[in-house]
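Worked example 3. Consider a protein that binds NAI.
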Amino acid sequence: TQDALNFSGQVAIITGAGGGLGRLYALDLAKRGVSVVVNDLGGSLDGSGSSATAAEAVVEEIKASGGKAIANAADVTDEAAVNAMVAQTLDVFGRIDILINNAGILRDKSFAKMEMVNWNKVVDVHLNGAAVCTRAVWNIMKEQGNGRIIMTTSPSGLYGNFGQANYGAAKAGLWGMMNTLGLEGAKSNIHVNCIAPSAGTRMTEELMDAGTLKLLAPENITPAVVFLCSDAAPNRKVLVAAAGTYSLAEMVETKGLHLPESERTPEGIAAHWGQISDRAEAEPIANVMEGVAKLVKAMTSA
Ligand code: NAI
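Given these inputs, the predicted complex is written out as structure tokens:
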């Protein structure tokens, strides 16, 4: 049996929810009684242009099925506009429990051909945009003693993908931001997690064949994100979701090898590379302090 997750009375801001994955999150949360701020700049895939109609259409859909929602066309990189969105949210709905940082664009190019404008724009929307939105709700959630924040990372950020140095760096940056914010928010019951989706949307339709796109139905991502929005959400985890499979991605460190001073040379490291990189006893490290403790232990037991 599965107990229903309870979202009653909650309020969510979802960025980039005028289409694709964000729209599906908005529809599902609204169905569960969450009041939703549907944010979307309404531009093209590469981040040019804007239009309020994408967000408004999703709001109409939600209202038509009896849910509560408002549209907002703030650019997530525009701090004043994002602060105004948060003020509007408090005005209309009175609180903010959930922030899903989902807005994103693509400007793929091999690094040899990537100009800084393409690097900067992608990092700006994904990484800086998420920082702007998170900062705008952070103290509200702290005072409330409750919050759920989702960062949208990507297999590209975790594992790398040809032609996506800009996007991958931004997506890995979101994971880094989660690691620290999850620590800082924990005592206020703010949980920060990442979703790493793979799904057929306008972002991927040019990159994959029809058969693969069909397997990667975006509807499969929604339950993972809604789980991360709930009371049952873990903290500081990366939930990978694609085609109905859900898994946890984690950074691990090998046990390592404490070298005597005489062997602390590049040659010594080369000679011991097999042991240094041996994954047999690899483990995740909970935070920097635990990492330091591990080093001290290795020294004293060497
Ligand atoms: P999408 O292009 O349908 O959705 C992104 C939305 O963000 C668009 O509606 C767009 O208008 C909006 N947006 C872009 N820049 C914005 C800005 N500055 N301010 C506000 N809104 C803005 O694509 P999809 O696939 O739904 O992407 C959602 C998120 O999931 C993105 O962060 C994407 O990088 C991520 N993702 C998607 C994967 C996939 O396989 N579809 C894989 C891994 C990550």
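Take a moment to read the result before moving on. The chain has two domains: 11-249, 261-301. The first helix runs from residue 20 to 31.
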